[in-house]
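sry for the spam today, last one i promise. struct tokens for design, 248 residues
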């Protein structure tokens, strides 16, 4: 395939970025999107130009590092996949592909297509954990019965990989889907009840401090999420938060 790539180039967080156009040829249908970018970078390096910086790690749809805005969609036109799992057969010969970093105030650009998503880490650190008493009086977690429906919902919430597609898809750059998945993961389990009040209050407070927008129930976050995290988690977090604030 012959393609025209319009890619956001930005030297650093303080520099002014711009779209740069690159023609590329010889792209195979079975290449992944990142492999296509590898081909482009090899050509740029051969010419003595700076390669396009983009984030990636596992290339197996597990880590969420490869987050790109492709033709206006987080992770591109496919569904339930990350960018590294997107294949070039989703595009046609002669297509123009616009590639940008995820856009959000809380995701500042580091360079080119790489953004700083450490805001998600700080939300997680605010309450996404369970403290364990190791004084010798611990109870084996496997001995505590958990309702099958709750266990399934908890596991489903836990599949969130923190890629940020929900934020990039939201017109308000809201992190409600991410935060609610991390809250739900523990709220549905008996082990998570001890710190339930502090958890939801602290994580929601940190989410707001990071500068994410509010949720307006558009639903784009669930559609674009590569793991299909459900909007039900947002409703659950709202209930948890209301309950926590009512308890004072």
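last one done:
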């Amino acid at each position: 395939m012959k393609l025209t790539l319009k890619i956001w180039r930005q030297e650093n967080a303080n520099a002014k970025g711009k779209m740069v156009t690159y023609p590329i040829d010889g792209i195979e249908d079975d290449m992944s999107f990142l492999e296509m970018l590898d081909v482009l970078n090899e050509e740029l390096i051969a010419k003595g130009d700076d390669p396009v910086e983009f984030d990636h790690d596992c290339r197996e749809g597990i880590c969420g590092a490869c987050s790109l805005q492709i033709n206006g969609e987080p992770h591109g036109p496919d569904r339930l996949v990350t960018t590294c799992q997107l294949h070039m057969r989703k595009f046609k010969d002669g297509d123009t592909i616009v590639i940008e970093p995820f856009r959000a105030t809380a995701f500042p650009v580091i360079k080119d297509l790489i953004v700083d998503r450490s805001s998600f880490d700080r939300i997680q650190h605010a309450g996404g954990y369970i403290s364990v008493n190791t004084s010798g009086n611990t109870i084996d977690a496997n001995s505590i019965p958990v309702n099958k429906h709750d266990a399934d919902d908890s596991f489903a919430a836990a599949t969130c990989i923190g890629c940020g597609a929900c934020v990039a898809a939201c017109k308000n750059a809201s992190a409600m889907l991410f935060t609610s998945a991390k809250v739900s993961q523990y709220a549905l389990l008996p082990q998570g009840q001890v710190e339930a009040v502090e958890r939801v209050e602290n994580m929601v407070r940190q989410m707001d401090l990071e500068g994410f927008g509010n949720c307006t129930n558009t639903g784009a976050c669930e559609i674009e999420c590569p793991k299909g995290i459900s909007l039900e988690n947002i409703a659950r977090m709202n209930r948890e938060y209301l309950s926590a604030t009512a308890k004072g």
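The longest helix spans residues 232-247. ok im logging off now
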